[in-house]
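User: Structure please.
Assistant: Input sequence and predicted structure:
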Amino acid sequence: MAERTGRGRDRAGRFFRRLLQTPLVALALLILIGIIIMAIAAPRIAPYDPTYIDVVRRLQPPLWTSEEGEVHLLGTDSLGRDVFSRIVYGSRISLIVGLTVVVISGTFGVLLGLISGYAGGSLLDDIIMRLADIQLAFPFLLIAIAFLAVLGPGLVNVVIVLALVGWVQYARVVRGQTMALREKEFVEAARAIGVKHGRIIFRHILPNTWAPTIVLASFAVASTILTEAALSFLGLGVKPAVPTWGGMLADGRDHITVSWWIVLFPGLAIMITVLCINVFGDWLRDYLDPRLRV
């Protein structure tokens, strides 16, 4: 037990040492942690109710102060709602959708990839891969729009649709890894002593596919956040009353020439979040690659 604890500390120490050697990545991770904290503590951070409408204060610029002394840090939108408060609450939707979709689609895709790769060359493998090929033949966003046009907007529907169309990339990556691993000596030895297929898959093969899966999941969070913003911009995301970054862009597009702050700050929120996730994911890919370890 003490030996395992020592190994865990060594791994954590090595991780943070490598992280601190790249200040840009450390900064990206720090910003991501800040965004997560902002989403969790949104009721305490947001100064105003993000859904409160006050048309008297509509289209006020950043740092505008009312007669009552209320300061709107990032201004107000076309309905007088505080932009900063809506951005803070909008981070919740982006993170909930991004993380939930990745967990669901990743779990489903990894499971199918393991089954398909272990049974490589069989009828089952052909069926799973042909389903993946059919789905890849259609644009990701187009499939999501088609499903949501039928199901209707809503947070649950967005998560379900994005999870259903996001499993393919995990399945293909894990399948390739599994087909290579099933021919390794330790897997052959496990078969020779009579270990059951299920134990071989989940005990011996699955742990060796974590590195590419984790990297893929990190990039998938960023792409899912972008997709959710695009769907909300088109009016197919969550309900209009719920503050989302994509919905804020859609609300402000008619006023962009006179009230630039309505679209600038939500756009920056999306850009910074996605950029930080991609920077950290790119570093994580190099860190988990044994060929690049020093």
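DSSP finds 13 helices and two strands in the chain.
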